[in-house]
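ESCALATION

Customer reports they have been waiting on this structure for their group meeting. Please prioritize. Original submission:
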Amino acid sequence: MSLTARNGGVSLNSLLNTDSNLITLLLGILVRFRCGRIAVKADVKGMFNQVAVTPADSDMLAFLWTSSVDRQPDELIRDTFSVLVCFPALANITLRETVKRKDMAIAQIVNEAFYMDDLYWSDDDEGVVINAIVDINTKLKTGLREVCFELRKCYQGTLSLVNSVYAKTVY
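Update from on-call: job pushed to the front of the queue and completed.
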């Protein structure tokens, strides 16, 4: 399968949206990550194999070849074809749209602090960090589960901070 192959002058690559960079620039994330006194890091588990396809759309991913004409084509429920080309943008827009519907403050953190499937965020105020982590552990995790993403490996600074977050978070 070639994404550059043309049919009637149109290729799959020519149909991809190239208007804006949906992936936050790494340099900006790293600079902001180092600005705050208290750092938080988290990861979305298996993000690049997690975008599910609705049953109504699964025909669009049907294989049109088969070893037997008597056999129905295989159908996929995960998007596997766009992984190499546009999946980072697809996964990021799924992540951003999901959190935007849940909470604008968390959406701002996601927009400023996610690079691909990793969250790098920091702040100087322990109270802000505690509240953000609690929100990340509840609102963001709930929202991500709706689109098959699982936030894990949420690490933050000091033991007292960990204890404060644990006391406020329902796991």
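Sent to customer with the following note: Residues 126-146 form the longest helix (21 residues).
Escalation resolved.
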